[in-house]
Amino acid sequence: MLKVYFTRHGETEWNAEKRIQGRLDSRLTARGERDAYLLGERLKDIEFDRIISSPSGRAMQTANALKRNRPLGIEADEELMEIYLGNWQGKTENEIKEQYPEEFYLYYHRPELFQNPEGESFFEVKKRAESFLNRLEQETSSGNILVVTHGVFLKAAYLICRNAPIEQIWRPPYLHGTGLTIVEINNRKTKLLLEGCIEHCE
């Protein structure tokens, strides 16, 4: 049996500005760094067999804070990257709403219909998440793995665990920076043990 400790990266400068990052990047804020430290304290006694992170700077910065003194390298895995949103990236939510009102509405209210000609659909992100989870169990069938990724990727992973459709991708909980999600994987069956917990931040 495999236990995967998923977390979203800490709060970034662009998160605080409500600016869409996607595959672009910004550094963690002071709050993001603090929350990553506090999550590290929460996880300090857990023996991890692997630490895997999205290669995005904000995720790697978070992963390094969580690694502490563990004698493990951080594995960068592109399947963990955030949804690619093309020309939305770098714009604020208000700017996107003004320039792409129909697409913006579909993104949040009809995700199964959302299409971005220069980016990914939610279906494509879910396919990436399925591929990652299947590969993870093939590579490491038991133990504990720490995974640092992004909000939409985690939401897609939730759908897989719940056997739920894309229409439910925005179902609660909201995934705050460094929120902890624990997934048990056994014989290709996934079970959510903890969802987006931020007790360490409070």
From TrEMBL:
Q: Which SUPFAM superfamilies match?
A: Phosphoglycerate mutase-like
Gene3D superfamilies xref list: Phosphoglycerate mutase-like (3.40.50.1240)
Write down a Pfam family by its short name: His_Phos_1
Q: Name one GO cellular component term.
A: cytoplasm
- One annotated GO molecular function: phosphatase activity
Q: Where is the active site?
A: H9, E82
Q: Which positions in this protein are listed as binding substrate? A: R8, H9, G10, E11, T12, E13, W14, N15, R58
The family database entries (PANTHER family) matched by this protein are listed as: BROAD-SPECIFICITY PHOSPHATASE YOR283W-RELATED, HISTIDINE PHOSPHATASE FAMILY PROTEIN-RELATED
State what protein this is by name: Phosphatase
